[in-house]
């Protein structure tokens, strides 16, 4: 996931999040999420599940995540 390092994080107002530590945490979080997703995909395929269905379920999971914070925070 080398693309993670190229992401420019922005605030809800469009301002660049320039804090090194914040960007480092975001990179680490995405790398961890990516590894967990790869492991789960591998498990699904090894157990005979349809790969495309797994990807759709995962995309739906991400699309329906609710933030515990009010919008704009």
What topology does this entry show?
Layout: H1 20-46, H2 51-63
Helix pairs in contact: 1-2
Report on this model:
It is a single chain. With 73 residues, this protein is mainly alpha-helical. It has one domain. Helices cover 55% and strands 0% of the residues. It is built from two helices and no strands. The chain has helices at residues 20-46, 51-63. α1 packs antiparallel against α2 (51-63). It starts with 19 loop residues before the first helix and ends in a 10-residue tail after the last helix. The mean pLDDT is 92.
Provide keyphrases for this structure.
elongated, single chain, 73 residues
SSE series:
HH
**How much beta, percentage-wise?**
under 5%
Work out the helix count: 2
Shape estimate: elongated
User: In total, how many beta strands?
Assistant: 0
| Average pLDDT figure | 92
Radius of gyration: 15 Å
Residues in helices, as a percent range: 40-55%
Instruction: Look at the helices and sheets and give the structural class.
Output: mainly alpha
Largest pleated sheet:
none
The count of domains is: 1
The end-to-end span amounts to: 27 Å
Query: Which residue ranges are poorly predicted, with pLDDT under 50 across at least 5 consecutive positions?
Result: none
Short description:
The chain contains two helices and no strands. With 73 residues, the chain is mostly helical.
